């Protein structure tokens, strides 16, 4: 791995995150991999590291980035992953010129569904169930077919198992994606992941980053969308998408409704990722979103799901397309 990265030279560096740096490398057999060099943490237990790696290594799904191997040499901990050709959704979506790819709505929809499917697998099919804890667009990678692959699952748990002194912010999310309940209690849950997924879905719909002072000032994307839902909902959507096909508005509204249900302030009102997949299916079969799959309306105050439902009802002519 040292040879393949030229001694972890900066030229091989393709990304950095809360858990360490990522390098691109070509192995002797010609295969291209991504190598994550973990940050050094105190009290790093070999047993915990090996146990977590063995667990993560067994998890295989077409919408997850597979861990191919790992090694530990002295203080170094290296993880070897399959290389993803197009990098992260964050880079491709928010810097399309640099990425050289234009994400039209059909590709964005495919990415949204793929990321949801990967997260649903972690929540419902893995034993024990895995809470991601840091779902965000930079942790949704895109393979050569622009298929979404969720990455970094298990990382937060691995780090907390090895070092109890890591800051909560490292263990429980990234600004703009953190659910409100994490600020009251530091207990992570699958419903916290659902909230973070809702933010990723908003990014795909709006083309905006979750935090951007130029766009939102002190607010964030979630707050901005909730404000605009009271005014002109069509202004929320990425104007590139609206230019692409003016008839998309009905479908975008239906996806916005899913995002808003994921972003309910109260975790118990959010859908599970399996329910999110069912909502996507309902849109695909042309039945819209069944009222049973929406989140109950709030007794008082603003409810984004309600506002989006009203917009769908007010645009019956769009449903013909």
TrEMBL record:
<dbReference type="Pfam" id="PF00069">
    <property type="entry name" value="Pkinase"/>
</dbReference>
<keyword id="KW-0067">ATP-binding</keyword>
<keyword id="KW-0732">Signal</keyword>
<keyword id="KW-0723">Serine/threonine-protein kinase</keyword>
<protein>
    <recommendedName>
        <fullName>non-specific serine/threonine protein kinase</fullName>
        <ecNumber>2.7.11.1</ecNumber>
    </recommendedName>
</protein>
<feature type="domain" description="Protein kinase">
    <location>
        <begin position="8"/>
        <end position="285"/>
    </location>
</feature>
<keyword id="KW-0325">Glycoprotein</keyword>
<dbReference type="InterPro" id="IPR051564">
    <property type="entry name" value="LRR_receptor-like_kinase"/>
</dbReference>
<keyword id="KW-0675">Receptor</keyword>
<keyword id="KW-0547">Nucleotide-binding</keyword>
<dbReference type="GO" id="GO:0005886">
    <property type="term" value="C:plasma membrane"/>
</dbReference>
<dbReference type="GO" id="GO:0004674">
    <property type="term" value="F:protein serine/threonine kinase activity"/>
</dbReference>
<comment type="similarity">
    <text>Belongs to the protein kinase superfamily.</text>
</comment>
<dbReference type="InterPro" id="IPR008271">
    <property type="entry name" value="Ser/Thr_kinase_AS"/>
</dbReference>
<keyword id="KW-0812">Transmembrane</keyword>
<dbReference type="GO" id="GO:0005524">
    <property type="term" value="F:ATP binding"/>
</dbReference>
<keyword id="KW-1003">Cell membrane</keyword>
<keyword id="KW-0433">Leucine-rich repeat</keyword>
<keyword id="KW-1133">Transmembrane helix</keyword>
<dbReference type="InterPro" id="IPR017441">
    <property type="entry name" value="Protein_kinase_ATP_BS"/>
</dbReference>
<keyword id="KW-0472">Membrane</keyword>
<dbReference type="InterPro" id="IPR011009">
    <property type="entry name" value="Kinase-like_dom_sf"/>
</dbReference>
<feature type="binding site">
    <location>
        <position position="37"/>
    </location>
    <ligand>
        <name>ATP</name>
    </ligand>
</feature>
<keyword id="KW-0677">Repeat</keyword>
<keyword id="KW-0808">Transferase</keyword>
<dbReference type="InterPro" id="IPR000719">
    <property type="entry name" value="Prot_kinase_dom"/>
</dbReference>
<keyword id="KW-0418">Kinase</keyword>
């Amino acid at each position: 791995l040292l040879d393949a990265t030229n001694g972890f030279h900066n030229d091989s560096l393709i990304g950095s995150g809360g858990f360490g740096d990522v390098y691109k490398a070509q192995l002797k057999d010609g295969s291209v991999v991504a190598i994550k060099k973990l940050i050094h943490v105190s009290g790093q237990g070999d047993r915990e590291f090996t146990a977590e790696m063995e667990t993560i290594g067994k998890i295989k799904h077409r919408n997850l980035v597979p861990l191919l191997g790992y090694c530990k040499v002295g203080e170094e901990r290296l993880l070897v992953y399959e290389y993803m050709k197009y990098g992260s959704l964050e880079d491709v979506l928010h810097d399309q010129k640099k990425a050289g790819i234009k994400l039209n709505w059909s590709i964005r929809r495919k990415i949204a569904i793929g990321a949801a499917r990967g997260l649903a697998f972690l929540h419902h099919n893995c034993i024990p169930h895995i809470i991601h804890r840091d779902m965000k667009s930079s942790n949704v990678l895109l393979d050569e077919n622009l298929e979404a692959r969720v990455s970094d699952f298990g990382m937060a748990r691995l780090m907390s198992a090895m070092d109890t002194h890591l800051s909560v912010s490292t263990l429980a999310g990234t600004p703009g994606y953190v659910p409100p309940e994490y600020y009251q209690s530091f207990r992570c849950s699958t419903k916290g992941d659902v909230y973070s997924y809702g933010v990723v879905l908003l990014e795909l719909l709006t083309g905006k980053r979750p935090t951007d002072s130029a766009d939102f000032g002190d607010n964030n994307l979630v707050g901005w969308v909730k404000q605009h839902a009271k005014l002109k909902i069509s202004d929320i959507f990425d104007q590139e998408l609206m230019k692409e096909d003016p008839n998309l508005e009905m479908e975008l509204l239906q996806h916005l409704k899913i995002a808003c249900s994921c972003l309910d302030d109260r975790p118990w009102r959010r859908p599970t990722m399996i329910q999110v997949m069912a909502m996507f299916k309902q849109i695909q079969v042309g039945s819209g979103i069944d009222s049973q799959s929406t989140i109950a309306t709030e007794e008082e105050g603003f409810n984004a799901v309600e506002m989006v439902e009203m917009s769908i009802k007010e645009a019956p002519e769009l449903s013909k397309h």
